[in-house]
Amino acid sequence: MHDPRQCVAGAPIFAGLPDPIIAQIAAISTHQQPVRKGELLYAAGTTADRLLVVDSGRVKVFRTAADGTEQIMYFLAGHAVDSEAALFMDVEHQNSAVATEDARVCSIRRDDFRTLVANTPQLAVNLLSAFGSRLTTLENRSAGLGTLTAHARLLRYLEDTGARLRTDYFRLPMSKRDLAGWLSITPETLSRNLKRLVREGRIEMQGQMVRLL
């Protein structure tokens, strides 16, 4: 059975918030909205005005190139969260999202969330505290990357990307050359270690698409 509080608490931006605050956020949320296979959740260029949680089913997030070619960015499933930034700023969707099977989606509208924050100062304090903890964790993790081998650094990056997107199947968010630069390794080293991870059974890879195993 769907639990609105657990649904809200599962969103990374709300991790660590006390139960009373989670209950208040759950009260302004919409839950278990049915989305049919083939139905668009949002289109590139439209206003991103709500956080989304794919509670069941599967959603494909993609980008359409100028020549009409579709580029799959990542998939959302199993309580995956999308469009977190929409709660805090006025932005447009850079990608489009379509249900690849019947799904149920939960959401929190930005206007409702901002009203709650304005009327509940403690929520703002708790959010800042939670963000501070996450930032500290991220900084510590980034500092630790410098001591890892290229192989371990690449695996950590892929695992962190999957955790951030809350999916085990996603498109690399940058070109392999840019990824090599991001990890401070050469493109040749990146290529060797991607092949090694495939041989070790850690990942499957086809083009830019990665599946964590």
Automatic annotation (TrEMBL):
This is FNR-like transcriptional regulator. The lineage of its organism: Bacteria, Bacillati, Bacillota, Bacilli, Lactobacillales. GO terms for molecular function: DNA binding; DNA-binding transcription factor activity. One of its GO terms (cellular component) is cytosol. Signal peptide: none annotated. InterPro entries: cNMP-bd_dom, cNMP-bd_dom_sf, Env_Response_Regulators, HTH_CRP, RmlC-like_jellyroll, WH-like_DNA-bd_sf, WH_DNA-bd_sf. It comes from Lacticaseibacillus pantheris DSM 15945 = JCM 12539 = NBRC 106106. Residues 13-134 form the Cyclic nucleotide-binding domain. It holds the Pfam family HTH_Crp_2. Residues 148-213 form the HTH crp-type domain. Keywords: DNA-binding, Transcription, Transcription regulation.
